[in-house]
Amino acid sequence: MMPSPVDSFDAAIVLGAMVRPDGSPSPALARRVAHAVLLAQSGRVGHLLMSGGAVRYPIPEARVMRDMAERAGIAPGRVHVEDQSLNTIGNARLSRPVVDAMGWRRLLVVTDACHMARSLYIFHRFGLSVRPAPAWPDTNPGWEWYAAWIREAVAIPWTVIRVERDRLRRKP
Length: 172
Known about the structure:
Helix content is about 45%, strand content about 15%. The chain has 5 helices and 5 strands. It has helices at about 25-40, 60-70, 90-100, 115-125, 145-170; strands at about 10-15, 45-50, 80, 105-110, 130. Strand 1 (about 10-15), helix 1 (about 25-40) and strand 2 form a beta-alpha-beta unit. The longest helix is centred in the C-terminal third of the chain and has 28 residues, at about 145-170. The radius of gyration is 16 Å and the shape is globular.
């Protein structure tokens, strides 16, 4: 057996994004899954953990993501689902038991580049040592992309409060 490359990871945790009412992925969701699929196909990650519940519509984001990855050729045994989380804090909190059960240690987190800093903070505060694998748009995304960066910058202080409050509530 060949040794794993230095930059290989046990899994990539892929964060959900909006699923449309008809069950089709939003551009952000499609972008994240496409990036994760490339990581898996290139051998950089062994498994994909799709994380996201039924936030706006009844179809959980993680299930749509799983189906997309499998249609792209990723073997079902390499795609795992956490389909209860409703936000990034939930992604971290609910992915942790899956990561622990699988014994994964080297982890990437896949999300949009503008969402990465906040995601890394949350995952680290929940005890998951993840490295970034940001998904970027293929073309100039326009004003929506810049608005997302501004939203993320504004969300950071509120996220710190929510994460610390959640952690305090869960301490034994």
